TrEMBL record:
In the C-terminal section; belongs to the class-I pyridoxal-phosphate-dependent aminotransferase family. The lineage of its organism: Bacteria, Bacillati, Actinomycetota, Actinomycetes, Kitasatosporales. Keywords: Aminotransferase, DNA-binding, Pyridoxal phosphate, Transcription, Transcription regulation, Transferase. Pfam families: Aminotran_1_2, GntR. Residues 1-70 form the HTH gntR-type domain. PANTHER family: HTH-TYPE TRANSCRIPTIONAL REGULATORY PROTEIN GABR (PTHR46577), TRANSCRIPTIONAL REGULATORY PROTEIN (PTHR46577:SF2). The keyword Cell division does not apply. GO terms for molecular function: DNA binding; DNA-binding transcription factor activity; pyridoxal phosphate binding; transaminase activity. SMART domains: HTH_GNTR (SM00345). This is DNA-binding transcriptional regulator, MocR family, contains an aminotransferase domain. SUPFAM superfamilies: PLP-dependent transferases, Winged helix' DNA-binding domain. PROSITE patterns: HTH_GNTR.
Length: 484
């Protein structure tokens, strides 16, 4: 069990026991708790800190932890019903173009840690065993000692880090300059900034169908209207993209040309230029979400669209979370022309800048020989997991497996379910069988054309867990009458 989850378990136990102590009474010492629960000192202090943050416990340095006194107002329930009106009333008065409710469920689903014993075929990040934990810790330790580590960075990001992203995105031919890079707090923040910069509330934004639920949520939270454009085995369909621009007058197209989430498709060489021309003819920007570039399974990768962008239409998004840890929230926007200033201004207004220690630590991480080694290790780790999940599918789900594309990068399989399958019921049955999978519905901006499941293999411990996970899906299919 990692320290975070054992601290959660200990905090849960202590929470249940708090009633045994009078307000103000001292709780057992750290040593008592360690011995009783068989946990480390770090676990005890994290659990106690958790309870202190919830206001249940107070800590006094040198004296220990005490049950908190109830606050003067007690836990008086406040009548907050008025908020329901306040949060929507303006929509009516000012004819808000889109409702202001924000639906984070699609994102939360990818970040949720499944209950103990449940295999995480729904995770959006690397399993802890594939994360570069040691290299990250060492990088942070060195970063903390860098002169000025806690000072204010330039708004656009540290010059050295911008130069690294320029080389990383542009490749050795140097298609990108550091001045065209804006350091961001990961990919999601970059997407929000880009959408806000490029499209006013109420306007349409074209998205691939299916697509990443996080971009649908971000667009809707910004008052935009996502309009789906179908994807086939070669990526987005150019004929339908042109139609969608014509029908909506959209000025933004969001796409993932490499290892598309959820289908795993790579935009074909033949379509790259065509897509750029169609967007340019519509006077539109292309937001290129290059989230999975470092998750290839071996083999040559096409360049990012932004590198040979003939019109300056591409706003490129990348992030280091996927090949490291969801907590290394550092990414970059790359663009050309006046849009750069708009992106920069929006980021400054929203969040000032990305914390300097995080930027310094990133430089420390990517500058060591451990970095290319780590990238090679995840290539192998992901390829092995992909092979294991495909083999298990062919063994245990022989009717579904033939229709599943073997991805050459990314971390997921997109499985077409038989017509009429109730995705929600099947996903719930999978969870009961001990495996968390993602239903297809949240990946569609409008009605889904068919039922799907996404199986993600990045957040799995290895082959045995994958074999077991697929077996559990097969059990759930059988229990739900899904011919699989
Ligand atoms: C397609 C895609 N883009 C962007 C992101 C955002 O990632 P992050 O904010 O961790 O960089 C995700 C995360 O799942 C994703 O799947």
């Amino acid at each position: 069990m990692n320290d975070g989850s054992s601290a959660d378990v200990l905090a849960g136990n202590l929470r249940g026991e708090l009633q045994r102590y009078a307000p103000g009474e001292k709780l057992p010492s750290s040593r008592d708790l360690r011995e009783r629960f068989g946990v480390s000192p770090a676990t005890v202090s994290r659990a106690v800190a958790q309870l202190a943050a919830e206001g249940l416990v107070v800590t006094r340095p040198g004296a220990g932890a005490f049950r908190a006194q109830p606050s003067a107002g007690g836990t008086r329930a406040v009548d907050t019903s008025w908020q329901q009106i306040a949060l929507t009333a303006e929509d009516q008065q000012h004819a808000e173009p889109a409702p202001r409710t924000v639906d984070a469920s699609g994102i939360v689903a990818a970040l949720e840690v499944p209950p103990p014993g449940v295999i995480a075929f729904n995770g959006g990040y690397l399993h802890p065993s594939m994360q570069p934990e040691q290299a990250l810790s060492a990088a942070f330790a060195r970063a903390a000692r860098r002169p000025g580590a806690w000072g204010r960075p330039p708004f656009e990001g540290l010059t050295e880090l911008r130069a690294w992203f320029a080389r990383d995105v542009g490749g050795p031919a140097g298609g990108i300059t550091p001045a065209q890079v804006l350091v961001t707090a990961g990919g999601q923040a970059a997407l929000t900034t880009a959408l806000r910069a490029l499209a006013p509330p109420g306007s349409p934004v074209l998205v691939e169908s299916p697509t990443y639920p996080g971009v649908l949520a971000a667009a809707r939270a910004g008052g935009l209207r996502p309009v789906p454009v179908p994807v086939d085995d070669d990526g987005v369909r150019p004929d339908l993209l042109a139609d969608a621009f014509g029908a909506t007058g959209a000025r933004v197209f969001y796409c993932q040309p490499l290892f598309h989430n959820p289908t795993g498709v790579v935009l074909s060489a033949g379509r790259r230029r065509r897509i750029a021309e169609i967007a340019h003819a519509a006077g539109a920007f292309i937001v290129e979400d290059d989230f999975a570039r470092r998750l290839g399974h071996g083999g040559r990768l096409p360049q990012p669209l932004v590198v040979d962008d003939p019109f300056g239409s591409v706003v490129h998004v990348s992030s280091l979370t996927k090949p490291t840890s969801p907590s290394l929230r550092v990414g970059a926007l790359v663009a050309r022309g006046p849009v750069l200033e708009r992106l920069r201004a929006i980021q400054v207004v929203d969040s000032f800048f990305v914390p300097r220690p995080l930027q310094e630590a990133t430089l420390e991480l990517v500058g060591t020989p451990a970095w290319p080694r780590h990238l090679r290790a995840i290539t192998t780790g992901l390829r092995e997991r992909r092979d294991a999940v495909l083999a298990a599918l062919h063994r245990d789900l022989p009717r579904l497996a033939p229709g599943v594309r073997a991805p050459v990068g990314g971390y997921h399989l997109w499985i077409r379910l038989p017509d009429g399958t109730d995705e929600t019921a099947l996903t719930a049955a999978c969870l009961r069988a001990g495996v968390a999978v993602s239903p297809g519905r949240p990946f569609f901006a409008a009605e889904a054309p068919a039922p799907y499941l996404r199986i993600s293999y990045a957040d799995t411990a290895g082959t045995d867990e994958i074999t077991q996970g697929v077996r559990r899906i097969a059990e759930a299919c059988a229990a739900n009458g899904v011919p699989a």
